[in-house]
């Protein structure tokens, strides 16, 4: 793909960006060449905008290690070791690393993001496909994914966690914003939230669920320890906690919302150390056996 002033003008760029392009980029320059020129000039935002307008390529950047102030690459980034960028790394397709990935401002991929180490982003962490780290994942801003999020260790999200797939976390999940997963949530340790949590499938947590506002799953909800929320607790099927289940003041606890009342004995069971206050639906069967 070659760029000309006429070609770029059709995308309605900002006046300042078009002026810079006219003065610094020759007609006929290559797509990646233009992206590199923008990044080198400190115009990383313009490079990201250009990538969003013209989309990905099949180009591959393959290196042993990657360390830079910023990277905006239209294709796939393959690094056999670790990635370290001071500000932004954005790829039109996938990013894969044999080590960890650390970015001072944001990490964005059009497709999958997979690393053998951990991921740390000083702001946004966004993957168009699956997001996978053998170690932990930490982002100061939102985490969004077009597929599943899988992490061997903790996941710490400073903003919203929004996934079109499910979340599979080996240790603790800590979210300071809302959590929305179109599929299930599975956490090996504790789940600690601040906003509401909604799962399109079920929620399974090895430890406690605490801090969230409203808690909702289309299937069942199970925690090895307590389930405490500031708002309502809604399970489409059964609800189970190794300790107590407690909704916020004035809010109810609901099980079996997505099954017929005649099947509550088998499909809307509520297991907890004592009957939850304001249990509005489902059948309490006593302390959990597992």
Summarize the structure.
The chain is mostly beta strands. The protein contains five helices and 38 strands.
Walk me through this protein's architecture:
With 290 residues, the protein is mostly beta strands. It has three domains: 51 residues; 93 residues, no CATH class; 107 residues, no CATH class. It is built from five helices and 38 strands. It has a 13-stranded parallel β-sheet with strand order 3-6-9-12-15-18-21-24-27-30-33-36-38. The chain has a twelve-stranded parallel β-sheet with strand order 5-8-11-14-17-20-23-26-29-32-35-37. A nine-stranded parallel β-sheet has the order 4-7-10-13-16-19-22-25-28, with no helix packed on it. Helix 3 runs antiparallel to helix 4. It is elongated and about 75 Å long. The N and C termini lie far apart (60 Å).
Please count the beta strands (DSSP E, at least 2 residues each).
38
What spatial form do the alpha-carbon principal axes imply? elongated
Give the strand line-up of the largest sheet.
Answer: 3-6-9-12-15-18-21-24-27-30-33-36-38
Into which percentage range does the β-strand content fall?
35-45%
Mean pLDDT over all positions = 93
> Largest sheet, if any?
13 strands, parallel
Count every helix, treating DSSP H or I runs of 4 or more residues as helices: 5
